[in-house]
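User: Teach me something about this protein's shape.
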Amino acid sequence: MTTVWGIHMGEHVGDRPLDGNYVAIGWPELGDIRNIADNRDAFKTKLKAAIKYKSEGAIPVHAGVLYRFVHVMKSGDLVVFPSKHDRSVNIGRFTGEAEYEPADADHYPNHRSVQWLGKYPRSDFSQSALYEIGSALTLFMVKTHASEFLSKVGVAPTISTPTSEENETDDETAIATVSQRAEETTSDFIIRRLSEGLNGYQFEEFIAHILECMGYTARVTQKSGDGGVDIIAHLDALGFQPPIIKVQCKKITGQSGAPEVNQLLGTLGEGEYGLFVNLGSFTRQANDLERTRPKLRLIDGEQLVAFVLMYYSKISPRYRSLLPLKQIYVPDFGVTSQ
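Assistant: First, the predicted structure itself:
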């Protein structure tokens, strides 16, 4: 009988939880939460004493998260960690009890050890499953689509979900999550449509079109023998004036690595720049290349979505029919009132 948990950690944590085989939650003001008595009221009291809350409704919600992290989750349970920095879904199994790491660089001192079982692109899962793991909470139970995540790592979908454990949330957090889910659902929709609706060559044509919307002149190279270059782009009509941009396109929702990026770099001459575009993400080694090569730019799925939204009014009708979108307004919790 397997319980499936979901956990959110900030985009800034990167791959550290995967490399270190753990998941973590914050609240460093509380110190070692293992020392708090084994009941929810004790966690509420500790939170009230340590943190000045604007909303009293958040206290029982946070107390529930902390209590479950220490006392309800157990070794053998599965955990789903949606990684924001590379749009991946990571699935693992808890291997121990809660631990306290006060020196955690990300200010997430409360750890649980995890054996990671797999890393998957978001496109491998149904949209409704992705919606569920976009929960408002830092820590939550995956209920409706638990079997989908279990099956992905070869675990028989026989699930035990304690009925007493609810994924409670306060109003402000719930509203913020609506905004986040709207953005994530739009990104998932665009990436899924591009992946399923275009073949490799059509995807190259689409990227060339986006570059033209940005003001470049772009042409797709021949289908074979392109030497790792799919598109040539430039600012002048004839293509004589530098900079010349050589573009490599990969219609994949997984990761592109350093060898592929190096292939593109090997084609660059004087006054030429390299642009690598995919629908997924890039490995750490590939990102390291971008940081050290000023003439290289990597565009992952999330960044490509941002460009689609930015230039949507200029996109041709044939691509708008593939990506039918309308503008909506959602609360922006990243802006503070004066």
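Now, about its shape. The mean pLDDT is 88. The chain has two domains: 4-169, 194-322. If you'd like, I can walk through any region in more detail.
User: That's plenty for now, thanks!
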